[in-house]
Amino acid sequence: MSDCLFCKFVSGEISPQTVYEDDDVLAFRDINPQAPCHVLIIPKKHISTLNDLTEQDAELVGKLYLAAAKVAKQEGIDEAGYRTVMNCNEQAGQTVFHIHLHLLGGRRMNWPPG
Ligand code: AMP
Ligand code: ZN
């Protein structure tokens, strides 16, 4: 999608701070980190919101979580613990409309979230 920031990361038009990449997934540091470790994991395929997933995307979503676990290990936060979050639409605070899994760690997380 030509006007999508995260598609520009995938195409290489803009370079994020990449921490992990494979054929299907890209992971990079959030520009406005909410925790000592804050990484966004995205599918290379453009999907606007969680509501737009199809049955064909089921494996791809699994790959986002596999990548999150790999990055957590790479970042050294896997044993202490971390949180993964995907916001959907306005009330959840979604601001970039290319789905992304937030990986947050390196500090204690509050529950329930605000
Ligand atoms: P969400 O609010 O769930 O849509 O999350 C979007 C996230 O993208 C926010 O945490 C932003 O800080 C992050 N973000 C926005 N622009 C960039 C950028 N250029 N590079 C890295 N992260 C970004
Ligand atoms: Zn996109």
List the helices and strands and how they pair.
Blueprint: H1 5-11, E1 18-21, E2 25-29, E3 37-43, H2 58-75, E4 82-85, E5 101-105
Antiparallel strand pairs: 1-2, 2-3, 3-5, 4-5
The chain binds adenosine monophosphate and zinc ion (ZN).
Adenosine monophosphate (AMP) binds next to loops.
* Largest sheet entry: 5 strands, antiparallel
Count of domains: 1
Order of helices and strands: HEEEHEE
CATH homology-level superfamily:
HIT-like
Helix/strand structural class: alpha+beta
Instruction: List how many beta strands DSSP finds.
Output: 5
Global morphology: globular
- By CATH, the architecture is named 2-Layer Sandwich
Helical residue percent band = 10-25%
InterPro entries: Histidine_triad_CS (IPR019808), Histidine_triad_HIT (IPR001310), HIT-like (IPR011146), HIT-like_sf (IPR036265)
Motif (Histidine triad motif): 98-102
Protein name: Histidine triad nucleotide-binding protein
Active site: 100
Task: Label this structure with key terms.
single chain; 114 residues; HIT family, subunit A; 5-stranded antiparallel β-sheet; 22% strand; binds adenosine monophosphate; catalytic activity; HIT-like; Histidine_triad_HIT; HIT-like_sf
